[in-house]
Each structure stands twice: as C-alpha cells, then as structure tokens.
Design brief:
Elements (H helix, E strand, L loop, with lengths): L9 H14 L2 H13 L3 H13 L7 H13 L3 H13 L8 H13 L3 H13 L7 H13 L3 H13 L8 H13 L3 H13 L7 H13 L3 H10 L6
Helix pairs in contact: 1-2, 2-3, 3-4, 4-5, 5-6, 6-7, 7-8, 8-9, 9-10, 10-11, 11-12, 12-13
Amino acid sequence: MADKYTDMMTDEVYEKACSLLEEGSLQEAAEIFKKLADDGNPLAQCDYGVCLAEGKGVEKNEEAAAEYWQKSADAGFPLAEHKLGICYFKGLCGLENNNDKAFECFQKASDGGVRESMLNLAYCYQEGIGVQPDIKKSIEWMEKAADAKMPEACLNIGVLYLFGKSGVAKDEEKGFNFIRNAAESGLPHAQFILGCCCESGHGTDKDFAEAAGWYRRAARGGVTEANKALERLGFPGVK
C-alpha cells in the first residue's frame, strides 16, 4: 500500500482514502488511514479511530479507537475531541464515564466549530453535566448550534423564541425561521410544529395548504399527531 501511493502528497493520499471509504473499499481505506495516522496526521488518526470503533476494514477495537482519537485531539483536531467527549459521557471505548472530561472535550470541540458538540455543550449547561447549570450559556450554545444548521438545535431554540421561554424574548418570526430550518432538514417533529405554525399563523401567515404539506411530511416520519391534524383540516391522512 505504501509503495502504491509513495509519489502522492499527503493530502492527496488522505483524500484518496476518503474516496475509497465512500466507494466501499474499506480495507484499503483503513490501511491508508493507519499509515497516515501512524505518521502523525490528525485527520487520519480520527478517521482510523472510526474504522477501529466500527470495524470498517479492520478488526473492531474500541479501546484502540479511543487511543487514536486522543492522539488526534492532542494535535488539536476538534472532531476527535467530540468523539472523546461522547466516550467519556457514555463510558464507551474503554473510557469510564467522566462528566468533567466530557464537558471539557465538548467545550474544545465547540470552540473548534463542531456543531454536534455545541448542542451537547448546551445540554451540559442545561443539566449541569460537568459544569454548574447555567441556562443563559445553555441558550447561547444552543443558538450557536442552530446558526450552524444543527437540526435539533434549530428546533429547540425555535420553540424558545416562538413561545418566549427560558428568558428568551418572544419573537415568533425568528422562532418560525429556526423551526423551518429544522423541518427542511427532515426532522419530523419540527415538520409537525411548522405545520402547527402555518395552521395557527404563529410567526407566519395562516396557510392551511402549507400546514397540510408539513403535516404530511411529519406523518411519513412517524408523527402520529400529524394525521389527526390533517383530518382536522379536512385533508386525507397518510397511510
């Protein structure tokens, strides 16, 4: 494998490994990631950790996965910090549950732009996980995650703006727009709430046809209340 890619630049080899992974050539991709990882490439260290954790192209080894993620995190790669945060929070990959370390990892990953960690950090501040509860900071990180188009965050912060909850100033139009972002990403519960907004005229003009369209999407996503809403508006339900 090493000879095959000797004349390619490191970035080219890494991109080749990513392409092989997408194409389903898992073993070859894992071999390249390992070579680059052992040469100190933090992106490859993170990706090879994923291969080890999920058994993609290599024998599954969760403890080794955490070791590679730690190397990547030590080199400053934010996504590896996120993965370590999940491990510390859930007690995975040979790491014991440690909420303080989980919070620290989520903070570093959030500062590095990982939107999933921004959402997790918001929950940490909300529930007091590894940090003192702070609803203001929770909302700040929830909105940052929403601005980064994290669907669950868009829904959560959208509801806060829609109803003026948890110290957030009521702004129905802003709430509607956040919820729409979540709905357009395919989140069924957000699609249902957006339908409710269109039906009731919260944050937007009343539009029963538009509401029905979102209720249909929500129903297809498994939201049982959506069919009841369709029937209430006189539209056929989704089977």
